[in-house]
Amino acid sequence: MPVNATMTAPQKALRKLGLERDIDLALHLPLRYEDETRIVKLRDSREGDLVQIEATVTSCDIAYRPRRQLLVTVDDDSDTCVLRFFTFYPSLQKALAVGNRVRLRGELKGGFLGWTMMHPAIKPAGGELATALTPVYPTVAALPQAYLRKVVLSGLARADLSDTFPPGVTQQLRPQVWPLQDALRFLHQPTPDVSLGTLEDKTHPAWQRLKAEELLAQQLSQLESKRERAALRSPAFALTAGGIHSQLLDALPFKLTLAQQRVCKEIAQDIAREMPMHRLLQGDVGSGKTVVAALAAAIAIDAGWQCALMAPTEILAEQHFRKLIGWLEPLFVARGLRVAWLTGSQKKKERNEMLALVASGEAALVVGTHAVIQDHVVFKRLGLAVIDEQHRFGVAQRLALRAKMSEPGHEPHLLMMSATPIPRTLAMSYYADLDVSTIDELPPGRTPIVTKVIADSRRDEVVERIRSQVAQGRQVYWVCPLIEESEALDLTNATETHEALSAALPGAMVGLLHSRMPPAEKKAVMSLFVGGQMAVLVSTTVIEVGVDVPNASLMVIEHAERFGLSQMHQLRGRVGRGSAASACVLLYSLGEYGKLSEMGRARLKAMAETTDGFEIARRDLEIRGPGEFLGARQSGAAMLRFADLATDVALLEWARALAPQMLDLHPELARRHAARWFGGKSEFLKA
Q1: Is the pTM of this model over 0.85?
Q2: In terms of DSSP H, where are the helices of 532-683?
Q3: Are residues 52 and 177 in the same domain?
């Protein structure tokens, strides 16, 4: 459906919903169903039922209190019901004139004065009843349900729904799934005898077919993407004796954990091949991912290539920069190599110096924010790209970094790091085209963190605890969710908290850090805290990742109920990095209704019960679902519309096993199947 000036409003609305092909319309499935196949009596109904009745109008009046409304009383020979309309026109009054017999559909409310219905659907009584449940579709403005039902059914009639499963594979599924054509026709027009429960919870065999189709399409696209990448070429880096890699290992002030040694070996094996590495390095907060990245970079640099490390924020990029300079620069000096630093806030002179170092190849390692991928950054020989907190970068940014390779048909090895562990079902599904390395143990000496959930009403006790920690020479983080007052969220802001803590701790330095401060000011505040002169740091979530202060022993998260689970876990990981006993206080507020939301309660409970990042990630997936967990809107990942990773693991495993067989033995079926579900939208998989 090409965009043109003659498109009608409904056509534009269909396009907005992504309904451009007949198959798109066929796959646009109802949110819910209404039963218009039978008439019920009021005496047989219950409070909250969605009913269809036929009744005679006995009165029709306009009332003005508490506001202008149309009040209509109807009688269906078993009981009476009052209809209430706050929006009405003369045509509605005419249709509901006294004596008229009407068919009404709406939700029944019961009260002292009997049954009522708010704004029911109305049509004249009599006429044929529907023979199937009436679908209610997801829609947008300018697209009424009646119009949408009509175009969906016409799209369904025209769509090619021929089977793309290889012969015999549906027999492997239990319960036995329906043919696609039958499944879609049924889901758009289910018969009245079906259990609404099996439609709503998607356990009906017709739904099983749709889930199996969707998961197979996703696995095919991921696998195809992985195979395309395997056809590209990358430089092969061999480990060399006596190089920067072995010198760095000898110079480190700590011994690598067994898990770190294992993932270093997996990465070294990958980058020794000419096939591009596409690996996700995941590990809990503080598990030591940065040193693994440094050792991988050292192998690439020993082989005469450059490495780029990109982080989502300047604070995190600077944290990496400081660590990497400490480890690598002493080893670079003798070889005439440098570490370059690129961010958006750099002065022009400094930036130009850094750009020259990158272009000449003198900068063997380039660390920065998204500034690393801007057009004017030219690498001489980029061989390895490391992206930290990869889910914080959009697809276009990841593709741009890979495009920095100077030779066409080649691309750098790609190592992505995440401190939010990926639950197994997500790794099987959305990361099927990635190899995953996991650091599943923490370095020795990490102090266990005690987590306390405390109501905001006990704030004074928390301040007393801070006073005690400061008196012992310890440091404290206090994290707030907002910088300034918002009418929508009446939350205590960071500035007020900073003033209150400064007054409560007269002898201690209390700092303030938030995202709107100039970079130089942020840097100065962080330097004071990292250096130990500042006792308490009041901050927004800019300190979520990357900050390493072993002397910090207490983390207070204010309005913890507003934070995401993985975000709270990241913040908690800022303490417990030294030898002192450490604690994290989750300070929650009950909100205007005097109670926590169900999601808020579930998050706080999970935080109190476990410090294991993998268990936190599993619960986060349960609470939020895969779309929000992965940050789908900015990552470009195609979210599953019908399948549920929590309940459809068996179908996912079936699709994973079938995808390679289809690509090898039935390539034309595989192509048609992926095209049916994704059209031309699988480009995102290449990132």
Answers
A1: no
A2: 565-572, 598-609, 613-624, 626-629, 632-635, 649-665, 667-678
A3: no
